[in-house]
């Protein structure tokens, strides 16, 4: 049995188009993961026990030009955590008055100082929200889903922090 010609032509055309797009260096915006940071030495003033701090340090270490230092005096910039909060509120109720959907929130407030303590970026808030459909017959699964959503929001917050760091003006040399 012979394959119909229109399907074969479409498949070949799609394959050719995919090869052309891959060969030209096309890349979706934001997938490179590299930023041109104006700093070379950064102090991260977030406790080592914080998952946010560990995630931020890991992402900063991914950049070849960044060194994370242990003392603020040795740095070009200091990233300091002002606050971090998780929240959960009821978004909708079912006919029995039980929660059917929750709104999960994750808020991070941070600021950036230069090595001498002068403010480069005042307190900046990153607030993220996700909806969670709730089913009381699957409590453990929904709790695991909520934890995964919080981890995803934390990762999004770290990426936003890095983009804001990259957008800062380099400190004046003098």
UniProtKB/TrEMBL annotation:
Q: Which domain of life is it from?
A: Bacteria
Per UniProt, the keywords (alphabetical) are: Cell outer membrane, Lipoprotein, Membrane, Palmitate, Signal
Q: What is its main location?
A: membrane
Summarize the protein's role.
Together with LptD, is involved in the assembly of lipopolysaccharide (LPS) at the surface of the outer membrane. Required for the proper assembly of LptD. Binds LPS and may serve as the LPS recognition site at the outer membrane.
Q: Does the keyword Lipoprotein apply?
A: yes
Return the GO cellular component terms, semicolon-separated: cell outer membrane; transporter complex
Subcellular compartments? Cell outer membrane
Q: What GO annotations for molecular function exist for this entry?
A: lipopolysaccharide binding
Q: Can you say what this protein is called?
A: LPS-assembly lipoprotein LptE
Known partners and oligomeric status: Component of the lipopolysaccharide transport and assembly complex. Interacts with LptD.
Q: Membrane topology type, per the record? A: Lipid-anchor
For biological process, the GO terms are: Gram-negative-bacterium-type cell outer membrane assembly; lipopolysaccharide transport
* Key word Lipoprotein present: yes
Q: Which family does it belong to?
A: Belongs to the LptE lipoprotein family.
């Amino acid at each position: 049995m012979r394959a119909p010609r229109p399907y074969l032509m479409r498949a070949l055309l799609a394959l050719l188009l995919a090869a052309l797009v891959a060969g030209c260096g096309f890349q979706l915006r934001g997938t490179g993961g590299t930023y041109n940071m104006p700093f070379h030495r950064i102090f991260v003033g977030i406790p080592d026990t914080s998952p946010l701090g560990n995630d931020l340090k890991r992402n900063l270490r991914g950049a070849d030009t960044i060194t994370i230092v242990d003392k603020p005096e040795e740095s070009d910039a200091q990233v300091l955590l002002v606050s971090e909060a998780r929240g959960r509120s009821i978004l909708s109720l079912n006919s029995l008055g039980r929660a059917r959907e929750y709104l999960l929130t994750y808020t991070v407030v941070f600021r950036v100082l230069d090595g001498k303590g002068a403010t480069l970026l005042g307190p900046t808030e990153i607030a993220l929200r996700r909806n969670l459909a709730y089913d009381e017959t699957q409590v453990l699964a929904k709790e695991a889903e909520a934890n995964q959503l919080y981890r995803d929001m934390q990762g999004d917050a770290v990426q936003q922090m890095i983009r804001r760091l990259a957008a800062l003006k380099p400190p004046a040399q003098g």
